[in-house]
Amino acid sequence: MTNRDEVLNILKGFTDPATGSDLVASGMVRALSVEAGEVRFVMEIDPARAQAMQPIKVEIEDRLSALDGVSKVSIVMTAHAATKPPPDLKAARPAEPKGPQKIPGIDRILAVASGKGGVGKSTVSANLAVALAAEGRRVGLLDADVYGPSQPRMLGVSGRPASPDGKTILPLRNHGVTMMSMGLMTREEEAVVWRGPMLMGALQQMLTQVQWGALDVLIVDLPPGTGDVQMTLAQKAELTGAVVVSTPQDIALLDARKGINMFEKLGTPIVGMIENMSTHICSNCGHEEHVFGHGGVAAEADKLGVPLLAEIPLSLNIRVAADGGAPIVVSEPDSAQAQAFRTLARQLITDGNA
Ligand SMILES: Nc1ncnc2c1ncn2[C@@H]1O[C@H](COP(=O)(O)OP(=O)(O)OP(=O)(O)O)[C@@H](O)[C@H]1O
Prior knowledge:
Low-confidence stretches: none
Bound molecules: adenosine-5'-triphosphate
Shape: elongated
Protein backbone atom coordinates (compact mmCIF):
# COMPACT_ATOMS: atom_id res chain seq x y z
CA MET A 1 0.00 0.00 0.00
CA THR A 2 1.15 3.50 -0.76
CA ASN A 3 2.16 5.64 2.16
CA ARG A 4 2.62 9.33 2.80
CA ASP A 5 6.35 9.26 2.10
CA GLU A 6 5.87 7.78 -1.36
CA VAL A 7 3.34 10.49 -2.18
CA LEU A 8 5.70 13.17 -0.91
CA ASN A 9 8.51 11.70 -3.01
CA ILE A 10 6.41 12.01 -6.14
CA LEU A 11 5.42 15.56 -5.28
CA LYS A 12 9.07 16.42 -4.76
CA GLY A 13 9.63 15.43 -8.39
CA PHE A 14 7.51 18.38 -9.58
CA THR A 15 8.88 21.90 -9.77
CA ASP A 16 6.99 25.04 -8.85
CA PRO A 17 7.57 27.24 -11.92
CA ALA A 18 7.32 30.41 -9.84
CA THR A 19 10.03 29.60 -7.31
CA GLY A 20 12.03 26.89 -9.03
CA SER A 21 11.91 24.68 -5.94
CA ASP A 22 10.02 21.42 -5.69
CA LEU A 23 6.34 21.45 -4.71
CA VAL A 24 6.94 20.18 -1.20
CA ALA A 25 9.82 22.56 -0.47
CA SER A 26 7.80 25.48 -1.83
CA GLY A 27 5.26 24.88 0.93
CA MET A 28 2.25 24.76 -1.36
CA VAL A 29 1.27 21.20 -0.42
CA ARG A 30 -0.94 21.28 2.67
CA ALA A 31 -3.04 18.86 4.72
CA LEU A 32 -1.79 15.76 2.92
CA SER A 33 -3.58 12.60 3.97
CA VAL A 34 -3.24 9.07 2.65
CA GLU A 35 -6.03 6.94 4.02
CA ALA A 36 -7.89 3.86 2.78
CA GLY A 37 -6.59 4.23 -0.76
CA GLU A 38 -7.45 7.90 -0.99
CA VAL A 39 -4.78 10.58 -1.38
CA ARG A 40 -5.96 14.07 -0.51
CA PHE A 41 -4.21 17.37 -0.20
CA VAL A 42 -4.56 21.07 -0.75
CA MET A 43 -2.35 23.01 -3.18
CA GLU A 44 -2.09 26.52 -1.97
CA ILE A 45 -1.23 28.98 -4.76
CA ASP A 46 -1.55 32.55 -5.82
CA PRO A 47 -4.96 32.77 -7.62
CA ALA A 48 -3.25 34.48 -10.57
CA ARG A 49 -1.28 31.29 -11.19
CA ALA A 50 -4.20 28.88 -10.93
CA GLN A 51 -4.46 28.39 -14.66
CA ALA A 52 -0.76 27.86 -15.15
CA MET A 53 -0.76 25.19 -12.43
CA GLN A 54 -3.70 23.28 -13.89
CA PRO A 55 -1.60 20.99 -16.19
CA ILE A 56 0.77 20.21 -13.30
CA LYS A 57 -2.20 19.29 -11.15
CA VAL A 58 -3.50 16.92 -13.84
CA GLU A 59 -0.09 15.30 -14.21
CA ILE A 60 0.19 14.83 -10.45
CA GLU A 61 -3.26 13.22 -10.39
CA ASP A 62 -2.18 10.77 -13.10
CA ARG A 63 1.05 9.87 -11.32
CA LEU A 64 -0.59 9.36 -7.93
CA SER A 65 -3.52 7.39 -9.36
CA ALA A 66 -1.03 4.93 -10.83
CA LEU A 67 0.38 4.13 -7.37
CA ASP A 68 -0.28 0.75 -5.83
CA GLY A 69 -3.54 0.72 -3.88
CA VAL A 70 -4.54 4.30 -4.66
CA SER A 71 -8.20 4.40 -5.72
CA LYS A 72 -8.85 8.12 -5.51
CA VAL A 73 -6.84 11.32 -5.70
CA SER A 74 -8.39 14.61 -4.56
CA ILE A 75 -6.37 17.76 -5.01
CA VAL A 76 -7.99 21.02 -4.06
CA MET A 77 -6.41 24.27 -5.22
CA THR A 78 -6.91 27.13 -2.83
CA ALA A 79 -5.83 30.72 -2.98
CA HIS A 80 -2.89 31.38 -0.78
CA ALA A 81 -3.38 34.27 1.56
CA ALA A 82 -0.33 36.45 1.88
CA THR A 83 -1.54 38.19 4.99
CA LYS A 84 -2.93 35.27 6.97
CA PRO A 85 -1.14 32.00 7.68
CA PRO A 86 -2.86 29.00 6.08
CA PRO A 87 -5.43 27.30 8.28
CA ASP A 88 -3.69 24.74 10.46
CA LEU A 89 -5.98 21.76 10.54
CA LYS A 90 -4.55 20.73 13.88
CA ALA A 91 -5.67 24.00 15.42
CA ALA A 92 -9.29 22.90 14.94
CA ARG A 93 -8.74 20.13 17.47
CA PRO A 94 -9.11 20.87 21.17
CA ALA A 95 -5.93 22.33 22.61
CA GLU A 96 -3.45 19.72 23.84
CA PRO A 97 -3.71 19.45 27.58
CA LYS A 98 -0.71 20.63 29.51
CA GLY A 99 0.85 18.80 32.42
CA PRO A 100 0.55 15.12 33.35
CA GLN A 101 -2.80 13.61 32.41
CA LYS A 102 -4.73 10.57 33.56
CA ILE A 103 -5.00 8.00 30.78
CA PRO A 104 -8.67 6.98 30.42
CA GLY A 105 -9.31 3.41 31.54
CA ILE A 106 -5.96 3.04 33.30
CA ASP A 107 -6.24 3.39 37.08
CA ARG A 108 -2.55 3.40 37.93
CA ILE A 109 0.74 3.72 36.08
CA LEU A 110 3.83 2.33 37.72
CA ALA A 111 7.18 3.07 36.09
CA VAL A 112 9.99 0.57 36.56
CA ALA A 113 13.30 2.36 36.19
CA SER A 114 17.00 1.79 36.65
CA GLY A 115 19.93 4.12 36.49
CA LYS A 116 22.11 1.59 34.74
CA GLY A 117 21.49 -0.98 32.01
CA GLY A 118 21.42 -4.70 32.61
CA VAL A 119 20.43 -4.65 36.28
CA GLY A 120 17.33 -6.74 35.56
CA LYS A 121 14.67 -4.07 35.22
CA SER A 122 12.87 -5.94 32.42
CA THR A 123 13.05 -9.24 34.30
CA VAL A 124 11.56 -7.57 37.37
CA SER A 125 8.85 -5.84 35.26
CA ALA A 126 7.81 -9.08 33.56
CA ASN A 127 7.68 -11.07 36.79
CA LEU A 128 5.91 -8.29 38.64
CA ALA A 129 3.32 -8.02 35.86
CA VAL A 130 2.48 -11.74 35.91
CA ALA A 131 2.55 -11.78 39.73
CA LEU A 132 0.00 -8.94 39.80
CA ALA A 133 -2.13 -10.80 37.25
CA ALA A 134 -1.95 -13.86 39.51
CA GLU A 135 -3.39 -11.68 42.28
CA GLY A 136 -6.35 -10.97 40.01
CA ARG A 137 -5.27 -7.50 38.89
CA ARG A 138 -5.90 -6.34 35.33
CA VAL A 139 -2.36 -5.65 34.23
CA GLY A 140 -0.78 -3.99 31.23
CA LEU A 141 2.93 -3.95 30.48
CA LEU A 142 4.38 -1.28 28.25
CA ASP A 143 7.91 -1.98 27.14
CA ALA A 144 9.23 1.52 26.56
CA ASP A 145 12.79 0.42 25.89
CA VAL A 146 13.13 1.17 22.18
CA TYR A 147 16.81 0.39 22.10
CA GLY A 148 16.59 -3.05 23.67
CA PRO A 149 13.00 -4.24 23.85
CA SER A 150 12.93 -7.48 25.80
CA GLN A 151 9.34 -7.97 26.90
CA PRO A 152 8.16 -9.84 23.77
CA ARG A 153 10.84 -12.45 24.47
CA MET A 154 10.29 -12.53 28.23
CA LEU A 155 6.51 -12.93 27.95
CA GLY A 156 6.82 -15.32 25.03
CA VAL A 157 4.90 -13.29 22.47
CA SER A 158 5.86 -12.71 18.88
CA GLY A 159 4.43 -11.10 15.79
CA ARG A 160 3.58 -7.52 15.14
CA PRO A 161 0.62 -5.80 16.74
CA ALA A 162 -2.32 -5.25 14.40
CA SER A 163 -4.05 -1.97 13.69
CA PRO A 164 -7.28 -2.84 11.87
CA ASP A 165 -8.50 0.75 11.63
CA GLY A 166 -5.13 2.43 11.17
CA LYS A 167 -5.73 4.48 14.30
CA THR A 168 -5.72 2.19 17.31
CA ILE A 169 -3.18 -0.53 17.99
CA LEU A 170 -4.19 -3.93 19.32
CA PRO A 171 -1.80 -5.06 22.05
CA LEU A 172 -0.53 -8.62 22.51
CA ARG A 173 -1.45 -10.80 25.48
CA ASN A 174 0.13 -13.69 27.37
CA HIS A 175 0.23 -15.05 30.95
CA GLY A 176 -2.70 -12.79 31.83
CA VAL A 177 -0.80 -9.63 30.89
CA THR A 178 -1.68 -7.22 28.08
CA MET A 179 1.59 -6.17 26.49
CA MET A 180 2.84 -3.68 23.98
CA SER A 181 6.44 -2.95 23.12
CA MET A 182 7.77 0.16 21.44
CA GLY A 183 10.31 -2.17 19.89
CA LEU A 184 7.51 -3.86 17.95
CA MET A 185 6.90 -0.61 16.10
CA THR A 186 10.26 -0.87 14.38
CA ARG A 187 11.55 -3.63 12.15
CA GLU A 188 13.76 -6.06 14.01
CA GLU A 189 16.77 -5.56 11.79
CA GLU A 190 16.44 -1.76 11.84
CA ALA A 191 18.99 0.08 13.94
CA VAL A 192 16.98 2.46 16.07
CA VAL A 193 18.17 6.05 16.01
CA TRP A 194 15.22 7.96 17.37
CA ARG A 195 15.40 11.61 18.19
CA GLY A 196 13.67 13.04 21.25
CA PRO A 197 10.52 14.28 19.49
CA MET A 198 10.03 10.92 17.76
CA LEU A 199 10.35 9.09 21.06
CA MET A 200 7.87 11.46 22.63
CA GLY A 201 5.37 10.90 19.83
CA ALA A 202 5.78 7.12 19.95
CA LEU A 203 5.36 7.01 23.73
CA GLN A 204 2.26 9.18 23.54
CA GLN A 205 0.85 6.79 20.92
CA MET A 206 1.59 3.81 23.13
CA LEU A 207 -0.29 5.39 25.99
CA THR A 208 -3.31 6.69 24.14
CA GLN A 209 -3.73 4.67 20.95
CA VAL A 210 -3.10 1.15 22.24
CA GLN A 211 -6.35 -0.55 23.19
CA TRP A 212 -5.30 -1.41 26.73
CA GLY A 213 -8.85 -1.99 27.91
CA ALA A 214 -9.67 -1.27 31.55
CA LEU A 215 -6.53 -1.75 33.63
CA ASP A 216 -5.91 -1.67 37.36
CA VAL A 217 -2.28 -0.97 36.65
CA LEU A 218 -0.01 -0.33 33.69
CA ILE A 219 3.62 -1.18 34.32
CA VAL A 220 6.05 0.78 32.17
CA ASP A 221 9.42 -0.88 31.67
CA LEU A 222 11.61 2.17 31.02
CA PRO A 223 14.94 2.27 29.22
CA PRO A 224 17.90 2.60 31.60
CA GLY A 225 19.06 6.05 32.62
CA THR A 226 17.47 9.44 32.67
CA GLY A 227 16.54 10.31 29.11
CA ASP A 228 13.74 11.57 26.89
CA VAL A 229 11.41 8.62 27.50
CA GLN A 230 11.52 9.03 31.29
CA MET A 231 10.99 12.78 31.07
CA THR A 232 8.14 12.49 28.58
CA LEU A 233 6.35 9.81 30.54
CA ALA A 234 6.49 11.80 33.77
CA GLN A 235 5.45 15.00 32.03
CA LYS A 236 2.58 13.55 29.97
CA ALA A 237 1.07 10.87 32.17
CA GLU A 238 -0.03 11.04 35.75
CA LEU A 239 2.20 8.40 37.34
CA THR A 240 1.28 6.56 40.52
CA GLY A 241 4.98 6.27 41.14
CA ALA A 242 8.32 4.86 40.14
CA VAL A 243 10.09 1.73 41.32
CA VAL A 244 13.86 1.82 40.96
CA VAL A 245 15.73 -1.44 40.37
CA SER A 246 19.39 -1.68 41.28
CA THR A 247 22.02 -4.31 41.95
CA PRO A 248 23.98 -3.94 45.21
CA GLN A 249 27.12 -2.67 43.44
CA ASP A 250 28.29 0.86 44.10
CA ILE A 251 28.23 1.90 40.47
CA ALA A 252 24.66 0.70 39.93
CA LEU A 253 23.63 2.47 43.11
CA LEU A 254 25.22 5.71 42.03
CA ASP A 255 23.18 5.59 38.84
CA ALA A 256 20.03 4.63 40.74
CA ARG A 257 20.49 7.74 42.86
CA LYS A 258 20.51 9.87 39.67
CA GLY A 259 17.30 8.17 38.56
CA ILE A 260 15.61 8.85 41.89
CA ASN A 261 16.77 12.43 41.72
CA MET A 262 15.21 12.88 38.31
CA PHE A 263 11.83 11.49 39.38
CA GLU A 264 11.86 13.73 42.43
CA LYS A 265 12.49 16.75 40.22
CA LEU A 266 9.63 15.69 37.93
CA GLY A 267 7.32 15.30 40.92
CA THR A 268 6.90 11.51 40.51
CA PRO A 269 6.61 9.70 43.85
CA ILE A 270 9.26 7.03 44.47
CA VAL A 271 7.36 3.93 45.53
CA GLY A 272 10.56 2.17 46.54
CA MET A 273 13.71 0.37 45.48
CA ILE A 274 14.24 -3.25 44.53
CA GLU A 275 17.55 -5.01 45.00
CA ASN A 276 18.06 -7.46 42.15
CA MET A 277 20.80 -10.11 41.99
CA SER A 278 20.85 -9.71 45.73
CA THR A 279 22.43 -12.98 46.71
CA HIS A 280 23.38 -16.11 44.83
CA ILE A 281 22.46 -19.54 46.10
CA CYS A 282 24.43 -22.26 44.32
CA SER A 283 22.00 -24.65 42.64
CA ASN A 284 24.39 -27.54 43.36
CA CYS A 285 25.54 -27.10 46.93
CA GLY A 286 23.21 -24.45 48.38
CA HIS A 287 26.13 -22.18 49.30
CA GLU A 288 25.10 -18.53 49.52
CA GLU A 289 27.32 -15.92 47.89
CA HIS A 290 26.98 -12.16 47.55
CA VAL A 291 28.28 -11.78 44.00
CA PHE A 292 27.56 -8.05 43.76
CA GLY A 293 27.98 -7.23 47.45
CA HIS A 294 25.18 -7.34 49.96
CA GLY A 295 22.71 -4.96 51.52
CA GLY A 296 23.84 -2.03 49.37
CA VAL A 297 20.37 -1.20 48.12
CA ALA A 298 18.83 -1.55 51.60
CA ALA A 299 21.35 0.94 52.98
CA GLU A 300 20.80 3.31 50.06
CA ALA A 301 17.00 3.12 50.36
CA ASP A 302 17.34 3.86 54.05
CA LYS A 303 19.57 6.84 53.34
CA LEU A 304 17.14 8.20 50.75
CA GLY A 305 14.13 7.54 52.96
CA VAL A 306 12.38 5.25 50.47
CA PRO A 307 11.19 1.70 51.18
CA LEU A 308 13.16 -1.36 50.06
CA LEU A 309 10.38 -3.32 48.39
CA ALA A 310 12.12 -6.60 47.60
CA GLU A 311 15.43 -8.44 47.41
CA ILE A 312 15.45 -10.73 44.39
CA PRO A 313 18.18 -13.37 44.38
CA LEU A 314 20.59 -13.94 41.51
CA SER A 315 19.32 -17.21 40.18
CA LEU A 316 19.96 -19.18 37.05
CA ASN A 317 16.30 -20.23 37.01
CA ILE A 318 15.14 -16.61 36.84
CA ARG A 319 17.28 -16.04 33.78
CA VAL A 320 16.39 -19.30 32.06
CA ALA A 321 12.67 -18.71 32.67
CA ALA A 322 12.81 -15.14 31.36
CA ASP A 323 14.75 -16.19 28.26
CA GLY A 324 12.25 -18.99 27.66
CA GLY A 325 9.20 -16.73 27.51
CA ALA A 326 7.58 -17.83 30.78
CA PRO A 327 8.72 -15.74 33.78
CA ILE A 328 9.59 -17.77 36.87
CA VAL A 329 6.36 -16.63 38.56
CA VAL A 330 4.43 -18.74 36.02
CA SER A 331 6.97 -21.43 35.18
CA GLU A 332 7.94 -22.30 38.79
CA PRO A 333 5.23 -20.67 40.90
CA ASP A 334 6.22 -22.49 44.09
CA SER A 335 9.92 -21.57 43.99
CA ALA A 336 11.36 -19.12 46.50
CA GLN A 337 12.23 -16.76 43.63
CA ALA A 338 8.62 -16.69 42.40
CA GLN A 339 7.43 -16.09 45.94
CA ALA A 340 9.71 -13.06 46.22
CA PHE A 341 7.86 -11.50 43.27
CA ARG A 342 4.44 -12.55 44.59
CA THR A 343 5.20 -10.88 47.94
CA LEU A 344 6.32 -7.74 46.11
CA ALA A 345 3.06 -7.72 44.09
CA ARG A 346 0.92 -8.12 47.22
CA GLN A 347 2.81 -5.32 48.94
CA LEU A 348 2.21 -2.95 46.01
CA ILE A 349 -1.50 -3.83 45.97
CA THR A 350 -1.82 -3.34 49.75
CA ASP A 351 -0.20 0.08 49.48
CA GLY A 352 -2.57 1.07 46.65
CA ASN A 353 0.23 1.31 44.12
CA ALA A 354 -0.82 -1.56 41.84
N1 LIG B 1 17.70 -12.10 39.48
C1 LIG B 1 18.30 -12.52 38.36
N2 LIG B 1 18.97 -13.71 38.35
C2 LIG B 1 19.58 -14.14 37.22
N3 LIG B 1 19.61 -13.49 36.07
C3 LIG B 1 18.96 -12.33 36.01
C4 LIG B 1 18.27 -11.77 37.15
N4 LIG B 1 17.72 -10.60 36.78
C5 LIG B 1 18.05 -10.42 35.49
N5 LIG B 1 18.79 -11.45 35.03
C6 LIG B 1 19.36 -11.62 33.67
O1 LIG B 1 20.21 -10.51 33.42
C7 LIG B 1 20.10 -10.09 32.08
C8 LIG B 1 19.67 -8.61 32.05
O2 LIG B 1 18.38 -8.51 32.60
P1 LIG B 1 17.29 -7.51 32.04
O3 LIG B 1 17.24 -7.58 30.55
O4 LIG B 1 16.07 -7.76 32.80
O5 LIG B 1 17.96 -6.16 32.48
P2 LIG B 1 17.55 -4.68 32.13
O6 LIG B 1 17.97 -3.86 33.29
O7 LIG B 1 16.15 -4.61 31.71
O8 LIG B 1 18.47 -4.44 30.92
P3 LIG B 1 18.40 -3.31 29.81
O9 LIG B 1 19.38 -2.31 30.25
O10 LIG B 1 18.81 -4.03 28.57
O11 LIG B 1 17.00 -2.80 29.76
C9 LIG B 1 19.06 -11.00 31.43
O12 LIG B 1 19.74 -12.04 30.75
C10 LIG B 1 18.30 -11.57 32.60
O13 LIG B 1 17.77 -12.87 32.34
